[in-house]
Amino acid sequence: VSREETLRKSFQPERCEAFAGAYTAVRTVSGFKFKKNREAEKQLPDIIDNPVQQIYREDAPAEDFKEKYCRKQTIGIVFSGGPAPGGHNVIAGLFDAARAANPETVIYGFILGPDGVIEGEAVEITPEMVNNYRNTGGFSMIKTGRTKIDTQEKMALSKTTCAKYGLNALVIVGGDDSNTNAAFLAQAMLEDGVQVIGVPKTIDGDIQVRDDEGRVLCAMSFGFHSAARGFARQISNLCTDCSSDVKYWHVCKVMGRVASHLALEVALQTHANITLIGEDLADYVDQRRLDAAEKAGTIDYTAYGMTLRHLSRVICDAIVRRAAVGKNYGVIVIPEGVLEFINEIQVFIIKLNTIIGEYNYTHDTDFHTDFLLLEDKLDYLRRLARRSREEADFSVWNTRDDDLFNDIPPFFQEGLLMERDSHGNFPFSQVETERVIMELVTDYLERLIEQGEYKIGIKNVYYVQTMQKAGMDPDYYGPFLFRNWGQDYLLFHVSMISLKTLTSELTRQGAILDNEKVPGPIEKLFKKSIPKFKTQYHFYGYDGRGNDPTTFDCTYTYNLGMTVFSLIANGATGQMAAIKNLEKGFAKWVPLGIPIAPLMHLEERKGRLELVLEKSLVDVRAPAFQAVKALRAAWLCARSEDDHFRKPAPISLEATTEEDRPLTLTLNAFADE
Ligand code: FBP
Fold this sequence. Notes:
Layout: H1 3-10, E1 23-29, H2 38-43, E2 52-58, H3 63-69, E3 74-79, H4 87-101, E4 106-110, H5 114-119, E5 122-124, H6 127-133, H7 152-165, E6 169-174, H8 176-189, E7 195-200, E8 209-210, E9 216-218, H9 224-245, E10 249-254, H10 261-270, E11 274-275, H11 278-282, H12 287-296, H13 308-323, E12 330-335, H14 343-362, H15 367-373, H16 377-392, H17 394-397, H18 404-407, H19 410-415, H20 433-450, E13 459-465, H21 467-470, H22 474-477, E14 489-493, H23 499-508, E15 512-513, E16 524-529, E17 535-540, H24 542-545, H25 551-569, E18 575-580, E19 590-595, E20 600-605, E21 608-613, H26 623-636, H27 663-672
Parallel strand pairs: 3-4, 3-6, 6-7, 7-18, 10-12, 10-17, 11-12, 13-14
Antiparallel strand pairs: 1-2, 2-19, 4-5, 8-9, 13-16, 15-16, 18-19, 20-21
Helix pairs in contact: 4-6, 4-25, 9-10, 10-26, 13-20, 14-16, 26-27
The structure holds 1,6-di-O-phosphono-beta-D-fructofuranose.
Residues 81-82, 84, 146, 175, 202-204, 255-257, 421, 428-429, 545 line the site of 1,6-di-O-phosphono-beta-D-fructofuranose.
């Protein structure tokens, strides 16, 4: 057992002030406003008007309050969706708080996610189990799964399970879709007296809650910090690698589904040379096109947002600029969901979702089952795409890309049709987004090589000339001697350095003396080959979900668990446990209950509009993104100086407070103050 493992078992996270006493109570916090969706009002009538609740320490409870608070309870807990570091501490916090209130309270853990609830598979959580998993990553204690409780039948089975175990409360630890589940279960189980509480989990960082006026209630879901720190650490190692053997562009796809929060945090942590932020690409406006259209008295819709080809040009431009100073290496960070923000792909995905959805409603078998049996899959896809194109009217979006589907590589054509999960989410992690983009980049770089704009693969040429011959003043030009090292035409003035020294230095760098084509006043000519454009692909995703939690996530989740117990003990349902002021120091953290129903909106899933918890995307106006935008030219470092990479520390409970919370939170907090 490693030292870190031992430390994790005994580490006791700090408790918020609200949990310092024996009892907690809740008070309604007024002033927060939410625009409620009509459909949510209709489908969730009994929890839509829930208030925001603050948990506080109750030091003088009345006798009947004490009695209720300390009654024996039977609580079920389930992990739902992808693992996120800190989940075990939610259980630990809930367990410690519940057992402190009444040592006879029983907590059941449902096995393998919502399937465990539907099928009634659970284990009683014991002190030994909790102690074994304190402060550790993953969801291995009770496992997880992605099933959606979306039919009357599954709902009825879930109710039967709650009755079978005699539950008075059910806790759902999950992302946006799982908290959507929690809201529907809370509404349906009201009549059975089962309280349902959600917990905001996901490494993607896309559960952030603000009210309509932008006041932050929950700045970040748990697991984000640990995953981002893990990714950043490994990507920063690639920064070191590429600047050592100077031959690769490391292309790093980073998890996060649609939102680019993880990529943004990684950019701030590592200063990688190029980081794409999907939300930024969607925000792009081509001013020249707009101006031209205005002159012509028309409107050009293609001026808004970025196309796939345009994106590949942006990356090429950055690569060429580094190559111009001899840097044929670097690190590119690509969020896994970036293609959602590309005009034509987004329209495409929605249309295909509709076609798949329609197919499933009108056929006996499911689309993907039939698709797998097809002999000529590609032909079928093309026909689908034609139909999709006609319906989507691609010509409005981008006339040049109207044949997009035939343009994209076959593996991506099939990738677009991969099976959606039970919530209707597109499986971004399974699609090699980075290869789609980099194939276009490589094609375009080849064109630039032909045009002589990208100097890769051709010879670097060094001319050696005496200053006197060039008629230059050595005192003035001397300091510029090696300044432009790495550029393809470099003038060396041998009066400032001995020809022997210069020859051996150029030879050491791989240059070959070529005196046959010496032009005009040049005395010697050297040539040097630059290696080809080479890439290495990496995916940072599943590893981050299994990371051990940072001190921030250990503390956050332990307090979330205690918050869950306070909400249950105080009679709440349809609420999500949260901690306010995560972006500030621990002393300012305040445990809350946030109503889930008002956070829901209608979203396209499987070709239909469904009521789901609204995901939070990167706000391109917020300071975290603005900082990256302001610094990206410096991080691209298309100059001859060294790169400005940053080395984040590895995750360890022994580490001091450096980066004790996500940098994005720290930066965005400036805007909220
Ligand atoms: P959650 O939304 O359930 O937390 O999942 C997060 C995530 O890790 C995404 O970043 C990723 O796109 C997805 O899960 C991968 O899903 P799967 O585990 O089904 O491959």
